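INFO batch 0412 | record 1 of 1 | parsing
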Amino acid sequence: MININIINKHNILTKVKAPLGANLLDVIKGKGYNIDGTCNSNLECTTCHCIIDSDNLNKKLIRKSIRETDLLSTTTHLHKNSRLSCKINVIKEMENTDIYFPTMSKNTLEVINKEIQKKEKKIKKIIPKKFKNYTKSHIKDIFKRHCPEKKLDLDKYKAITSIIPFRTNNYVVEELIDWNNIPNDPIFNLVFPQTDMLDSIEGIDDFYDFYKDPNKDMITLRKEASKIHEKLNPHPAGQLDMNIPNNTDFYLENKGIQHKYRETMLFFPSESQYCHSYCTYCFRWAQFVGSSKDLINSNSLNYLLKYLKENKKISDILFTGGDPMVMNSKQLGRYLNALSSNPELEHLNTIRIGSKSLSYWPYKYVTDDDAKDMLKLLENTVNSGKHVSLMAHFSHPNELKTDVVKEAIRLIKNTGVQIRTQAPIINHINNDPKIWEEMWRLQINLGLIPYYMFIERDTGAKNWFGVPLFETLKIYQTAQRNLSGLAKTVRGPSMSCNPGKIQLVGVETINNEKVFALKFLQARNPHWNDKLFFAKYDETAKWIDDLKPAFGEKKFFYEDELEVIKKLNKEHLGTSGQLFQNDIKTAYSLVDNKVNYQYEILPDGLSMFPNRVIYDSIN
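INFO prediction complete | emitting tokens
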């Protein structure tokens, strides 16, 4: 954060804190000042005109475009240092600079400041809450205290939590779950594994029978649970066998990075491979129940920095898990401080933190002993020049309604951190357009940016949670239809599958054939991005693997090349994120570079091996 001086037409000065990199107009409006910005930064008006009281500073700002210059020539307060504030980003050289807004009146400032003071007085005092962790051994007591009249099969609940990991806390149990609506309450289904979630899985009845055996031993129970785990596709979309860097022994020994997409790498800190509460639909459930050899995690800072320095195309790092925000400020600061202070990491622009802490333990940012230090860490990271985005997981609007989550959001936003939201569409929890409309509307009102609607992955209790693709599309389109343009930032519905993030664009009839229109939002090969392709319309399909190519095609356009990428990774030549560090168009050319095998370029730009199976050369 830096301080800048805002001066109105009556020469009244107000000091404003502004995060580095933020848009100046957004900063001023975010503080409650009445600057019009009528055209929404589209260079169609001069209502955000300002004058910067520094010739030297003007030289360091982004140069005026011809369009901006033309517009400024029409203003009645033109000055040599005139700018449109919507086209200025805050830089450190602006510290204590006077910025004059010739159309801002004294009365406006006074009214706005009074309104801000009123709002601050209205903020309810949050009573601190001490975190209490609940596991399956607490289920009996929780049911007895909160829904004694409900006839819930306690033994079966405890049995299924031997397969689907269970962990929650007193905030979720006391403030989010409506115990009068059990077992239909969405948060209850979100957190407590339901007894029929795995009914479609072969062998589940035998497991329940074994669990009832009074003579069972825990070692055998875990072995029987592992048999069920193996049937639940524990590591979908190539997480273990395609996403982890393996081209050197050093990377193989430190298994804490995934690098699927060229510009973005994922890091799994060992300290955060758990959550404040587990979601029953979590696609990373295997991180909580699997053997240590299959866990993705590392606490090696040397490993993290070495990888980033060697892969200069990486602009974004995502801390994930588990939940990175179970770490305290000292633990998280060990990573963030190293990333924000290293001069060799100028190519790293954005630090993302994937977290459901706002949903499951917002007290972390408000009343916990470490709250102020955590907020200060986030603010310092923003001030270092890195863009920080909290990727907040909200699955239902009820998670956005408590006073403590609203206060936590306010405090985080004050650090300069951007909060983007995402969630999958989940049967029994949020498979209703009214729920998504309400959730996105609440997020907009709280100043959050709706980012992704995901389609539930093909793992875990997928048959219980999954929603057919055609129904998912209707829910998305119906919810979006009733919202303003601010909610159009949502990307989806999206399948995070092996080849990449595939968006379900729509349903069309082409040449008398009804089809799903699809495209990549992100792909293992960046050249697949935004390429439109089509699948046969199928109302039973819930995932990309359920779809067949339309128009008589035998394969989707990416399938052969995906096999090449798999082979290259199997030969320890790198993940797709590593393979495409250079701006090559296909993985076929990588095969040629690695093994000196001939290929040809077809008119559509794709490389193919003439008269051979495409991966013969790397067998």
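INFO post-check: The chain has four domains: 2-122, 130-197+232-416, 454-552, 559-618.
INFO record closed
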